[in-house]
Specification:
8-stranded parallel β-barrel, globular, 8 strands, 239 residues, alpha/beta, binds cytidine-5'-monophosphate, TIM Barrel, 15% strand
């Protein structure tokens, strides 16, 4: 794998809530990582202008807002995400088949064959376990639900999923090699686990089949973030 290919696999989790931090990180590492993940906290605090700020520094954006609503509402929100020029955004597969197909159809109508953002589905949040599912009336094991929702998303035309490194091989097998898999919970050999419980190194996550790795604190909390990003690139290249 080339250095650029390895770099493009890194999605830096921009877990901050102020413009000044966005500017700091975008200017520091836009050319060291493939993408910036903007989530609910930052987007709620600062809005779409954050996306434009990252783009101004040459960065690409994964808009992690995990849409889950009636089909028309999710489709309309998704069109706005696409118009912002984000490269990836996501929705909850639990919103159902129609919510997902309506969204993909709306995007395809708008883009008419031109390159559009890729849509990812969240299957079962990694914060949920079997007990969480049982309490909401789902009586199935977590891995079975993950695969079932990933396959439903694929049938609906969704481009990929967000999944834990442990789920990656199962999903890869069930959904094929074109289906995108984005995994958080990645910890390079040099970093601490923080609050992540089921971690994998960048090399093993890529070897397990991940297309992109979401990485936050191993870069943001490093004494030299640029060097940490480069060290992660090296680890991915070694995969
Ligand atoms: O700092 P760290 O590398 O743990 O950041 C991981 C990012 O991925 C955070 O934004 C976190 O919310 C997100 N994430 C996660 N585990 C999931 C889904 C998302 O850590 N299952």
């Amino acid at each position: 794998m080339t250095r650029d290919e390895a770099r493009n696999k890194i999605i830096f989790a921009l877990d901050v809530n102020e413009f000044s931090d966005v500017e700091k990180w975008a200017s520091l590492i836009a050319d060291r990582v493939g993408m910036f993940k903007v989530g609910k906290q930052l987007y709620t605090a600062c809005g779409p202008v954050v996306v434009r700020m990252i783009q101004k520094y040459g960065g690409e954006v994964f808009l992690d807002l995990k849409y889950h609503d009636i089909p028309n509402t999710v489709a309309m929100a998704s069109l706005e995400a696409a118009r912002l020029g984000v490269k990836l955004f996501n929705l909850h597969a639990l919103g159902g088949y129609e919510m997902m197909t309506t969204t993909v159809e709306a995007l395809d109508r708008e883009f008419r064959g031109a390159e559009r953002p890729k849509v990812l589905a969240v299957t079962i949040l990694t914060s949920s376990n079997e007990e969480t599912l049982r309490a909401v009336g789902i009586d199935r094991p977590v891995p079975e639900m993950v695969v079932r929702l990933a396959q439903l998303a694929k049938r609906a035309g969704i481009d990929g999923v967000v999944a834990s490194p442990q789920e990656t091989p199962l999903i890869r097998e069930a959904c094929g090699k074109e289906f995108l898999i984005v995994t958080p919970g990645v910890r390079p050999a040099f970093a601490s686990a923080d609050d992540q419980k089921r971690i994998m190194t960048p090399a093993s996550a890529v070897a397990a089949g991940a297309d992109y790795l979401v990485i936050g604190r191993p870069i943001s909390a490093a004494s030299d973030p640029v060097q940490a990003a480069e060290a992660i690139v090296e680890e991915i290249m070694a995969a």
